[in-house]
Design goal:
The chain is 74% helix and 1% strand. A two-stranded parallel ribbon has the order 1-2. Helix 5 packs antiparallel against helix 9 and helix 13 runs antiparallel to helix 14.
């Protein structure tokens, strides 16, 4: 381990156990690192009470983080192509841990605003480029789809365990929300600090992760990424896949509003969609993409099935009689949408995007891909306010169109790779099929 920390290594130089360990490390990080800024999604009311702020103020905190994140996605990729993942991971974790400890002090609103902006910088500008690039560095072009799928499965498992622990902590401090929230944040800060130490000790210096070490940003780097058809096709696919991935959340209120589903059924479906599907969909789709040797093919087939399932959901007569059928379709939609999202970034490796520009390509992919977060909820919310239960067929029709567009762009990427022979951005060296094999 000490040798690999001082010399450049390829994934072939690492044992299978070491590659698995790195995959687990970055996957755990992607789950734990974002828990502090998104704590309100899980514990909204306790957080309001603990921080002694109102709904508008908590909205401002989340918006401050989201705006900072959106600005930082693209530059985070270029930074990842200029600074080693070991340095970025360690620094990102350390700064986020320190900010989380400040957050745990339950300070005033002005300080909280600064903390959330700071977390936007530490988690996105510094760390986000590591998320996809480290998985790519321990995989070959064909193995990336499987490994990123496994990564999302680990992400879901860690999130599930973390969620139960946090619920237990809040229950233990049921009468004191401030102590419960403070304990949760201190725990998260401690875990993130441990991730920083582990990243520094376990992440090697990879050969090929930086094309010209010590060289600053060049306009040519921007030109290469923005001039790559593969990157744009993958980013467009991610946009529509992510639109559907977030949009299928509206199938749950559809069950209760239109089908008059019992609360127990709706709760069961919500739990399965939130936790169970994440554990299974990513690894399953990763394995399928690896077997098909094309994530795009899997996305095409799944997107078409999603469109058909959404059409079926619209066509099924409303009422309690067919609620179980509708619930099964909703769970299936969640599985398919989650799986497509889990492997969407692997289109970059399918298109042979080089290691030296993979971080920047991932940055552009994130900027375009996550744009639905900036408008889809407001758009769909306005439709529901205007149309009531009649809004859902409109929303599902929009999602059908997005699914089909994801399939079209994925097919275009396949045609491009066939036409160019994957020569537009061929890797200088290939890593082994890791970590799930060898």
């Amino acid at each position: 381990m000490s040798n690999s920390s001082h010399r450049e290594v390829s994934a072939a130089d690492l044992s299978r156990g070491r590659r698995i360990m790195l995959l687990i490390l970055v996957s755990m990080g992607s789950s734990i690192l974002f828990a502090p800024p998104y704590l309100k999604n899980v514990f909204y009311d306790p957080l309001l009470d603990a921080l002694d702020i109102n709904n508008a103020q908590i909205g401002w905190l989340v918006s401050a983080y989201a705006i900072t994140a959106t600005i930082c996605y693209l530059p985070s990729g270029f930074i990842a192509d200029r600074i080693r993942v070991r340095t970025l991971a360690t620094t990102g974790y350390l700064i986020t841990a320190m900010l989380t400890f400040v957050y745990a002090a339950l300070p005033g609103f002005g300080t909280l605003l600064a903390v959330f902006v700071g977390m936007g910088l530490s988690t996105i500008l510094i760390w986000w480029g590591v998320r996809f690039k480290l998985v790519r560095l321990i995989s070959d072009a064909d193995g990336y789809a499987r490994n990123i799928g496994l990564s999302y499965g680990i992400y879901g498992a860690v999130g599930l365990v973390l969620g139960f622990v946090e619920v237990g902590i809040l229950s233990a401090f049921a009468e004191r929300a401030d102590l419960g929230v403070r304990t949760i944040l201190m725990m998260l800060g401690g875990l993130i600090f441990l991730l920083a130490i582990a990243s520094h000790l376990l992440t090697p210096r990879f050969a090929g992760e930086i094309e010209h070490p010590g060289e600053g940003f060049k306009l040519a780097d921007l030109t290469r990424v923005f001039g790559s058809p593969v990157v744009w096709l993958a980013a467009g696919t991610m946009f529509f896949v992510y639109f559907v991935y977030t949009g299928v959340a509206y199938t749950t209120p559809y069950l209760s509003t239109v089908f008059a589903a019992p609360a127990a059924v709706v709760s069961a479906v919500s739990v399965i969609r939130t936790y169970g599907i994440t554990l299974l969909a990513g690894p399953a789709f990763g394995a399928l993409a690896t077997k098909a040797r094309s994530p795009s093919r899997v996305i095409i087939i799944a997107s078409i099935v999603i469109a058909v399932a959404l059409a079926a959901l619209i066509a099924i007569p409303s009422g309690p009689v067919l609620v179980i059928v509708a619930a099964v379709i909703v769970v299936a939609l969640g599985f398919l949408a989650n799986g497509c999202y889990g492997i969407a970034s692997s289109q970059l490796s399918e298109g042979r995007v080089g290691l030296d520009m993979f971080g920047a390509a991932s940055g552009l992919l994130s900027v375009i891909g996550f744009l639905p977060d900036t408008f889809s909820s407001v758009w769909f919310g306005a439709i529901i306010d205007d149309r009531g239960s009649g809004a859902y067929p409109i929303i599902f029709t929009i999602l059908i169109a997005c699914s089909l567009l994801a399939a079209v762009l994925s097919y275009a990427l396949i045609l491009w790779v066939r036409r160019t022979g994957g020569q537009a951005a061929v890797e200088e060296s290939e890593a082994p099929d890791a970590p799930a094999s060898s």
